Amino acid sequence: MTAPAFTHAELSWEEWANILPPLASRFRAVSYDARGTGLSDRHAIDFSTEAMIRDLEGVVAGTGFDSFVLVAWCNAVPIAVTYAAEHPERVSHLILCDAFTTISDIAQTPAYQATTALLEMDWVLFTETFGQVLWGYANPEFGRQFGEFIRACSEPEAHRAFWRTVQSYDVTALLPQLTTPTLVVQNRNNRLFPSAVGQRTAAVIRGARLALIDDITYAPVPELVEAFVLEERAPVKPAVTHLPSGMTAILFADIVDSTALTERLGDAAFREKARDLDSALRTIIRDHSGTAIEGKLLGDGVLAVFTSARHAIQAALACGKAGDDAGLPLHLGLHAGDVIREEGNVYGGAVNIASRIAGLSAAGEVLVSETVRSLARTSAGVRFEDRGEQALRGVGEAVRVWAVREGDA
Q1: Domain assignment of residue 314, given as a range
Q2: CA nearest neighbour of 367 among 337, 401, 395, 393
Q3: pTM (2 decimals)?
Q4: In the chain, helix, strand, coil percent, each to 5?
Q5: pLDDT band at 324; cut points 50, 70, 90
Q6: How do strand 330-337 and strand 345-347 relate by DSSP bridges?
Q7: Which residue of 17, 160, 210, 349 has the smallest Cβ count within 10 Å?
Q8: DSSP assignment string, 195-236
Q9: Same domain flag for 7 and 117
Q10: Rg, the chain, Cα only
Q11: pLDDT at residue 138 greater than cutoff 60
Q12: For residue 312, what are the CA distances in angstroms to 50, 273, 376?
């Protein structure tokens, strides 16, 4: 079953010919038009998470499915995450394409700011520009056709109301609670939903996989879905692992603005440089007694765990230098806390905090939580600059954050 972002029950099968018909040839596929889009009520004004969930529940009841694979794109991802968290017995597999979980994931991107302004000012210009802004696809004919499709899907005021309501969606706190096998598919060419957002999403969902694609038509998605759904998995019994200190130090690193770098360098050159950097980072992590988490295939970054906060800080500083030397500067964040481990993976709230701290860092800068600073302040041989209490999405309480500076305290 596919949950909609903006759809049209008839026209979508032509517009998304690389996705829906191939899925229907492999599975019994159900797609629906949510309120305000396609053949549904075009003037709906309640686009709250609760209202959208009621739509999905109504469709599920109508199908008679006991369990099903739930596939969601873009703005529908928070709805799918909420439903899967509330009905884990119903959702056998969860596929999140171009994921975002809170508006702060995308609000600072130039694509979001540009499209928001256009939506408020000029409906036709917005619709004909949206696809090209989204995927960087400079093709006027494509823009015209995609604009016609959006206008067929929704009315201007309903679309604007939906866009505004989406700004209140926030499901980051639900991600660590998900128990459904999850695949996150992120399109590197999508400028509204950067790869780093998908990386952070996959990093905090138990056992989640991440697949990065480069095809603006999303043609690889049906095969990725089929392989993921039909994959046989041995049952895993997760267990909380308490290290001698009672904590694990978690390093989260990802390349700064990888989308812009890809555009500047070209995809082939960027991917070659990123692969070389990934190898260097994993060597640094091993040399500092850390473990890179192979089960989290971040694509443009790494997730690693350490038994020592001091080693984690030293590794983060070395990783920052490696990124600068490669011309691929990194966001770097460290937190320490209990994690849940299963073979090849770690997950839990502490991983989410590490990823959110990394997102606050400037290019090449290492930021750490108060927990890490407390563990390492007398042994790491570095100075810490106070960045104050920071409110992190998906985290109930503010976290005090410190910048690491080389040199004795």
Answers
A1: 239-406
A2: 401
A3: 0.67
A4: 45, 20, 35
A5: very high
A6: unpaired
A7: 17
A8: HHHHHHHHHHSTT-EEEEE--TT-TTHHHHHHHHHH------
A9: yes
A10: 21
A11: no
A12: 41, 24, 9
